[in-house]
Amino acid sequence: MAKQVSLSILKMLLLSVFMALLFSFMSQAYCTDSDGGDDYYTPGYVEAQEPTAGEPESFSDKCVSATKLHEFTCNFPAVERPGLPTYFISELVFDCPNSCVDGACVDAAPVSVETDVSCIFVNSSNTEHECVTDKGSCKGIGSCSVHVKGFIKDKITIKSDCGAETTRVIDGKDKEIRFVCPYDGPPKIAQQTLQQQDVVCPTLASVDCPGGSLVDQGLDDAGCKIPQECLIDEAKSSCNGCLLENDICMEIGQVLKQDVMVYCSNDNKLKPQKSVNESCQNDYECLTKKCMDGKCFDSQRQLSNTEMIGEPVHEKGVLTKIIDWFKGIFS
Questions:
Q1: Whole-structure pTM over 0.85, yes or no?
Q2: Measured between alpha carbons, how far is 292 from 290 in angstroms, rounded to an integer?
Q3: Could you identify which of 35, 169, 206, 239 might form a hypothetical disulfide with 249, taking C-beta atoms 3.0 to 4.6 angstroms apart as the criterion?
Q4: Distance separating alpha carbons of residues 46 and 13, to the nearest angstrom
C-alpha cells in the first residue's frame, strides 16, 4: 500500500515538472513588428518564433512593383497560415496611392526613367539573334540594344534566343547583358560595320581592258575596294572582227542583215550601212556597195540621169528660124 502511494506521488511530481517545462517553453514564443503593425509608409520587418520552438524567423516589408507593397505584420491570436514557417505572421499586398520605394509607400509619384539594355551575343559574330524584354525586343548580329521606359525599382526580365534569361532592376543606368550563344565561326566583315569605321581608302586607277570585261573583286580586310580584274573571253581574244552574241566571229567588211543592214567596221563594231552621198572609205560601208571619192555612189541612178536615146537634138537659134521662114516663101 505504501509503495502504491509513493508511486502515485512520483507520477504527480513528474507530471508537474513536465507541465512547468512545457509552460516555460511555450512562454518563449513571440512575434514583434518593427513598424508597429499595418504601417504602409514605414519600412519594417517581422520577427517571430513558433510555439513549437526552433530558430526565430524574420520577414521584411518589400515592394513587389512600382506601386505594390508586400506588408508583413504580427497576427494575434496565432492562426495557422499554410506555407509560412510560423503561425504568428500575417501578410498582404497593398496598393500604394503613388509609388512604393524600399519596402514602403511614398507620397511622391513614381519616378519615370529611360535606359538602354544592350544584349551581347558571345561566340556569335555572323548569325542574327533576338533579345526580348518586358518593354520591347531587338535583333542583331553580335549585339543589339533595346530602349526601355519604366519606373525606378521596376524589374524587367531579359532573355535571348540563345537560351538564357536574367532579371534586372531599372535604375536609370544603361545595362549590358552578355549571352553565350553557339559558336558560328570567325567574324565576317559586314558592310554596315565598315561604314561605321573611319577608314580612308586609296583612289584606284582605271584598269585598261581592251577586248575584255572588268570584274569586281569585292573588299579587302580594311573595307576598301579591290582593283577590278580584266577578264578576257577566249572567243573574244581570237576574233579579229566583230564578235556576235552567239560567239560567232564576223570578219571586217562582212555585211549582216538585222533590223537594218550592218557591216563589221575596222574598229570591230557593227555599224549600219550608209546611204548615197554619205561619207565612206570602203565599198562595204554603202548600201549601194560602191564608195567613190569618199562618198557612197549609186551608178544606176547616175546612168539614168545621163543616158540619151538617138542623136542629140539641138535647139535652133532666132537667125536660123528667120532663114528657114524665107526659104519657105520662095520654095
A1: no
A2: 6
A3: 239
A4: 39
